[in-house]
Design brief:
Blueprint: H1 3-26, E1 39-50, E2 53-62, E3 69-76, E4 84-87, E5 89-93, E6 99-107, E7 111-118, E8 121-125, E9 132-133, E10 144-147, E11 156-163, E12 171-177, E13 185-188, E14 190-194, E15 200-207, E16 220-227, E17 230-234, E18 241-242, E19 246-247
Parallel strand pairs: 1-19
Antiparallel strand pairs: 1-2, 2-6, 3-4, 3-7, 5-6, 7-8, 7-9, 10-11, 11-15, 12-13, 12-16, 14-15, 16-17, 16-18
């Protein structure tokens, strides 16, 4: 084989690889797979479920100037369907200066990646090539998140917290109110399981069967995760969680 033919063969291989990557891109696989400092999943949760379709809130963390950023959830809502983009809206800034964005979307079988567009450049996080799913309640950037489980009909409300395992000794509790924060109570959560990604799920049940609540907003709660005097709160970015969501199982 001549040197010229070798070069042609190498060029053909490179072209084939480029075309293959291009095809993968249309299928939802991002070029930069791991979470980066620029964009990463913060947390996500279901807000409504009926007839097999679930609505989700997805919170995304970015670094940099929010005014120059556009953030998208690149998702597939059903196997065999085309991937789509849902544009996220800016929500708030955290104490460390990072930005939080929020996207709402509905899906039967959610798979998604995160895309940041800034100054003409794209940065991706697709969970190391695996993409995210509805099982990913918390990302590495969030210390603790509430797994919203939905309506109960026996007066008992199950509260789950998903948290990073920062230390063996920890305290997790829910602070809740049934009168618009005129009064509140704390109740401890107990360890339930260790998840596949190393995070932990802690749980408890609040017995509200004797409480007369005129509206769903009368019940609100936040979750505290405490280690050696340091507290991390999941409080829906200051809005607290309430009973307005309904998940039918």
């Amino acid at each position: 084989m001549t040197k010229t033919s070798k070069k042609s063969r190498i060029a053909a291989i490179i072209l084939t690889l480029a075309m293959t990557l291009g095809i993968f891109g249309t299928m939802g696989v991002a070029s930069a797979s791991a979470a980066t400092d620029k964009i990463s999943l913060y947390s996500s949760g279901a807000t409504f479920q009926k007839y097999g379709q679930t609505s989700y809130e997805i919170f995304i963390k970015t670094r940099g100037n929010a005014s120059s950023q556009n953030v998208y959830v690149h998702y597939n809502y059903l196997d065999g369907e085309n991937w789509k983009d849902a544009k996220a809206t800016y929500l708030t800034k955290l104490d460390d200066g990072s930005n939080i964005w929020k996207a709402n979307l509905g899906s039967y079988n959610l798979k998604y990646a995160l895309k940041l567009v800034s100054n003409g450049q794209e940065t991706w996080d697709n969970n190391n090539g695996k993409n995210y799913t509805s099982a990913d309640v918390i990302g590495p950037a969030a210390p603790v998140a509430s797994e919203r489980l939905g309506a109960n009909y026996d007066g008992k409300v199950k509260i789950n917290a998903v948290l990073q395992n920062y230390a063996y000794n920890k305290t997790v509790f829910v602070r809740y109110t049934t009168d618009g924060w005129k009064t509140s109570k704390d109740q401890a959560l107990t360890y339930s399981k260790t998840n596949a990604n190393g995070t932990e799920t802690w749980t408890t049940k609040l017995d509200l069967s004797s409480v007369s609540m005129p509206s769903t907003k009368s019940f609100q709660y936040a979750i505290c995760y405490r280690i050696s005097g340091t507290e991390f709160w999941a409080n829906n970015f200051g809005a607290n969680y309430d009973g307005t969501y309904r998940i039918y199982r």
